[in-house]
Amino acid sequence: MRKDWKLHIIVLFFVFIGEAIGVKQFNLGVGTVALFPMLYVLLMGGIVSFPKLKWMNEVQMKKAAGILGISFMLFVAKLGSMLGPSLPKIFEAGASLAVQEIGHVIGTIIIGLPIALLLGMKRESIGATFSIDREPNLAIISEKYGADSPEGRGALGVYICGTVFGAIYLALLAGFLGSLGIFHPISLAMGAGVGSGSMMAAASGALAVTFPNDADDIALFAAAANLITTILGTYICVFFSLPVTARLYEWLEPIIGRKSKEAEK
Prior knowledge:
Layout: H1 5-21, E1 24-27, E2 32-35, H2 37-48, H3 58-83, H4 87-92, H5 94-118, H6 124-129, H7 135-144, H8 150-180, H9 185-192, H10 197-210, H11 215-256, H12 258-264
Antiparallel strand pairs: 1-2
Helix pairs in contact: 1-2, 3-11, 5-11, 7-8, 8-10, 9-10, 9-11, 10-11
């Protein structure tokens, strides 16, 4: 503990600053973007961990990552304590929870794969678009193709981007969509459960700010959707998403692949 005094002081300082700033909402005309303490802390953490600044070394960053895991355990434990009393609500929404999982799987393939090919990616696009590429998905790609394969590099690239920008992006998107008044807050909460604890926490936090009266239900359904995605998502990726993405790549790459079109010219 004493050896990491610098790390603990930095974290405490960031938390203090984030809470002092509080929740800020900005009206963009068509909707509202909500900024809350977690986003500020994420940004400040990203700044101090920038290698050229040399404020934190790699050892401290790894220790911080370990502490983050413990923090999410506490967060998940809190959500678990809320799940039990609310199981009837979850069972009532059973069909909705199951159907919304389709978007988590199909969306990355149908939308992401063509865009990746148009941008010039080759087999990296398979690993980058068969899922949102969290830890279980990296394990699947590594087992199937190898960590140093093009598919593995594509998955790792999305994993890094998701780790750095995912929580911020989903928080802004969730707050904006919630402010439009088009979607029910519970529907947005289900969509927040993408299989990543940090992304779910950021998105559900933004929704709780937008819909304060539904904050408990938002946390509940986001946690339920996230749990379903984590449990079922691994099997869906192995038996459906990855094979389908690989097959679609073989079909689409000669047609819309940027490098393939340039070769024809």
